[in-house]
């Protein structure tokens, strides 16, 4: 699906710029071009498509179904959708903005956002070949549980009040599109022509893109600068004895780095081969994928500090717990 971005980055980095794929600079530039181009396209296309659907279809009934009648199913659906979509943490943010604009409750949207970078089909297959099916199934279950419980918690504390103003306004606008009349019926939105729907979707996509494009460059640029810098020997030497503190230390160490779920699997294999406990390795890699600085630079554009800190703390606690759990169960699975 995203091979075109890889090919474009390869052509631009190695053919046009003349960089070598065997150097850290060449790898970093390739990483930057691939991720920025992918996120820019996703940002515009996903916001446009979701806005077009909002203007064309009765998304209010779906939204109300998820928000009022079956919130638990909504968390499960959000997490499952995150698990089957091949997005990294930064690429998931355009979908987050689209869901918010459609009026989908923040908890359900966050279930998607938390799960998406942790699980995808390629990572699952690679994990199965590396750790076996038992560990892989447990990893998928725990990854989805992080999304579901995270979404439930954020809805419980009414996290929508901590969105940035433009995102909060988009959410409010999306949730007020169906208006209940005095007789208890729901007033259907006015039917728009295709041109009107297109103009609405285009305006929405360009407005959101204009707000966040520069932060995509900053966030991915930081990730590219750190890409490939994973000191395997140092991590194994200092965190390989399995002490209780090694798991939270590994989580904190993974934060400055940035990768996607597929790219981090070879790192995971290297760490395990060099003797790092499985739980400590998973905690480090999950932190690298879903709690990195580049992701939080982007999330800051749609979240206030309170919500950002809450999500950050929730992820750190979750990854640490997962690491301890896998270390404890490693001898039994």
Largest sheet strand order: 1-2
Largest sheet: 2 strands, antiparallel
Order of helices and strands: HHHHHHHHHEEHHHHHHH
State the distance separating the first and last CA atoms. Answer: 34 Å
- Helix and strand content put the structural class at mainly alpha
Would you tell me the overall average pLDDT?
A: 78
- Which spans of ≥5 residues are poorly predicted at pLDDT below 50? 178-189
What is the CA-based Rg, rounded? 21 Å
Shape: globular
**Assembly annotation:** single chain
Question: How would you characterize this protein structure?
Answer:
Helices cover 73% and strands 1% of the residues. It is built from 16 helices and two strands. It has helices spanning 3-16, 24-56, 59-69, 71-84, 92-101, 106-115, 121-131, 133-156, 165-175, 194-226, 232-239, 246-254, 265-273, 278-290, 293-299, 305-329; strands at 179-180, 186-187. The chain has a two-stranded antiparallel sheet with strand order 1-2. A hairpin with a 5-residue loop joins strand 1 and strand 2 (186-187). Helix 6 packs antiparallel against helix 8 and helix 12 packs parallel to helix 14. The radius of gyration is 21 Å and the shape is globular. The relative contact order is 0.12. The model is unreliable at 178-189 (pLDDT under 50).
Topology (SSEs and partners):
Blueprint: H1 3-16, H2 24-56, H3 59-69, H4 71-84, H5 92-101, H6 106-115, H7 121-131, H8 133-156, H9 165-175, E1 179-180, E2 186-187, H10 194-226, H11 232-239, H12 246-254, H13 265-273, H14 278-290, H15 293-299, H16 305-329
Antiparallel strand pairs: 1-2
Helix pairs in contact: 1-2, 2-5, 2-10, 3-4, 4-6, 4-8, 5-6, 5-9, 6-8, 7-8, 8-16, 10-15, 12-14, 12-16, 13-14, 14-16
